[in-house]
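2024-03-11 09:14:02 INFO receiving multi-entity request
2024-03-11 09:14:02 INFO entity count = two
2024-03-11 09:14:03 INFO echoing inputs for audit
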Amino acid sequence: MKREEELHTIELIRNGNLELYKVIVEEYSPRVLSVIRGVLPCKEDAEELAQDVFVKAFFSLNKFRGDSSLSTWLFRIAYNMSISKTRLKKVKFVPIESAQIESNNCSDISEEEIYMKEKRFELLNRLLSSLDPSERFLITLFYNQEKSIKEISQITGIGESNIKVKLHRIKKKMGEMVGGKMEVSYG
Amino acid sequence: MDEKFEKDELLRDLLNEINYRSAPLSFAERVSSKIESERVRRERRTETVQIIVVSICASALLILSFIYLNNRYFNLTLEDLRLFNSNFGVKQLLYRVKGIFISDGTLLWYILAANTALLIVIQQFVQNYLYSSGRIGKS
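2024-03-11 09:21:47 INFO inference complete, emitting structure
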């Protein structure tokens, strides 16, 4: 959705068009869900929280000034809510199972591929469990959503240099996990 | 500085595993349903707050009017309330009340009563109008 179109849609939603909000939800929910899933690996919890994010966003639409993109604004709400949830309930990390994730053409996957996938999930779980919720959110924004350091700073409220340091540490940790194969070239 | 950050393929590939390609089934419908529930909850909360505020204002007004009426007509003091426990006190109090209702100021009292009744009727009309126009939700 283009920016102007996005702002026009938001204006119409503010005037009470709930049907148009469904379009926004359909468009942004996969992205919001993906980042929340990084923080809350339990699928049901993540989906519940993602719904709450969209509900909160709906009632806060009047506060959306359009300074940032809608996705950045939604990610900010998602960040605040998911961090609050992990703090409030002290959510323990639940390992992600490969079966929980959508998979295309499951029948076409060979045994070797399944084995590799399991290994990847094992590594992913080890990595995510070694990070705190804020760091998990940060790397999903950076790698999954391709957000820039500046945008991540806007979303999380963490300083840009601090984000770079955190990313460097995460990569270093990751490098150690895969046996030093990963190159850490900056910091 | 941003461009200097290389994106490691391994991390991206791994995290890609938790990526949603599309919204889960009926996700938008569940969000709409939650929005409706939240809207009702917020309306009820607003109504409750309105009722509390109106009740506080009405109580304050009533107390002030009692104080005014007492100062203007009854002039009851704490000493009178203590006398109320004895027969002498009750007798004295009843005489004072009788003096108020059957005196030169009686007409003023009747006007006050009529005004109060009129205000109650107006309040009922306004309340019914606000309910029917949907400006105030029914609890």
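2024-03-11 09:21:48 INFO post-check: DSSP finds eight helices and no strands in chain A.
2024-03-11 09:21:48 INFO post-check: Residues 101-105, 181-187 of chain A have pLDDT under 50 and may be disordered.
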